Every structure is written in C-alpha cells, then in structure tokens.
C-alpha cells in the first residue's frame, strides 16, 4: 500500500466509454417493445400471427446484446505513479483482478506512432510489458501516454534531484 509520506504523481482509473446509461437502456427498450408490439399487432390483424413471436425473439436478442455490452463496461484499470513505483491494478469484466508493480526508475511508456486502434499503450520494464487501456480510443491512449510520461519524469526527478 502507499505510505502516507509518498507523493502520488498520477492516480488514474481507466474505464470503457459508456454508450448508454441504465436509464437510457430502459427507455430505449420500452420504445422498442412498444414499436414491436404495435407492429406485431398490425401483422397479427392481417393473419400473420407468428410475426409476434419473431418480434419477441428480436427483443430478446437486443436485450442480450446490451447486457453483454454492459458487462464488458465493468472493466477498469487503475494506474498509480509514485517516485518508488508504477502500480497497475486491473479488474476485468468478470471481476478477476491482476496487479503489477514496476520500479518507476526503470519503467518505459511505449505507444506505437501513428496511433491507431491496433496501437497498444504499454508500460515496459526489462523484457516485460503490461498493456493497459485496450478499451481506450486512439486519442485517449495518446493523451494518457503523455500524462503518464510526465508523471514518470516528475517521479524520477524526485528520486534523482538535479
């Protein structure tokens, strides 16, 4: 854990972007349900009763897709930079936790330029690399890499004053 006298240069929690809130999801599903039901009744009045069942399957598929998306959005990564170390705590969508600690004096921040969706942000130490922020957009990765590099420079400056 962090000692009280230790200066924290960066304490960031990275989470995936949310496309829709829980309330927005409920409103959207209610609208889809009403539209599907009314359209199904129209087809039922024309003698095509099985259409109601297919609309029900469509509703279930939409609900399942959003639930899976919401589960993926539970992922988060916390990065803490101090003069002594860079600590990473990652919790995946299923709640499994991984932790890693790298001495800040030897940590390197790598991000392939130009930044694309295939460019991973890595914290490297020796031959070991930790990929962080896979769910970030390229612009967010670049911005976070700049902030992480600045924090590392400040942390190193505390360890090795000029």
3D structure, described in words:
The structure is a single chain. By secondary structure, this protein is an alpha+beta fold. It has 2 domains: 8-16 and 75-159, PH-domain like (Roll), CATH 2.30.29; 22-72. Helices cover 43% and strands 26% of the residues. It has 3 helices and 7 strands, in the order βααββββββα. The chain has helices spanning 22-45, 50-72, 138-159; strands at residues 8-14, 76-82, 85-91, 97-103, 108-111, 121-125, 128-132. It has a 4-stranded antiparallel β-sheet, covered by helices on one side. A 3-stranded antiparallel β-sheet has the order 5-6-7, with helices on one face. Helix 1 packs antiparallel against helix 2. The radius of gyration is 23 Å and the shape is elongated. The mean pLDDT is 88.
């Amino acid at each position: 854990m962090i000692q009280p006298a230790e200066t924290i240069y960066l304490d960031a929690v990275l989470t995936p972007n949310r496309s829709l809130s829980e309330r927005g999801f409920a409103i959207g599903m209610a609208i889809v349900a009403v539209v599907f039901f009314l359209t199904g009744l129209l087809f039922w009045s024309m003698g095509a009763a099985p259409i109601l069942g297919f609309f029900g399957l469509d509703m279930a598929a939409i609900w399942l897709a959003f639930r899976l998306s919401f589960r993926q959005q539970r992922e988060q990564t916390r990065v803490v930079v101090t003069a002594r170390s860079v600590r990473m705590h990652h919790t995946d969508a299923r709640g499994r936790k991984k932790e890693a600690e790298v001495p800040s004096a030897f940590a390197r921040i790598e991000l392939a330029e130009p930044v694309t969706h295939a460019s991973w942000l890595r914290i490297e130490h020796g031959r070991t690399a930790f990929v962080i922020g896979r769910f970030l957009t390229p612009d967010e990765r670049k911005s976070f890499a700049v902030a992480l590099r600045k924090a590392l420079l400040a942390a190193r400056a505390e360890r090795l004053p000029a």
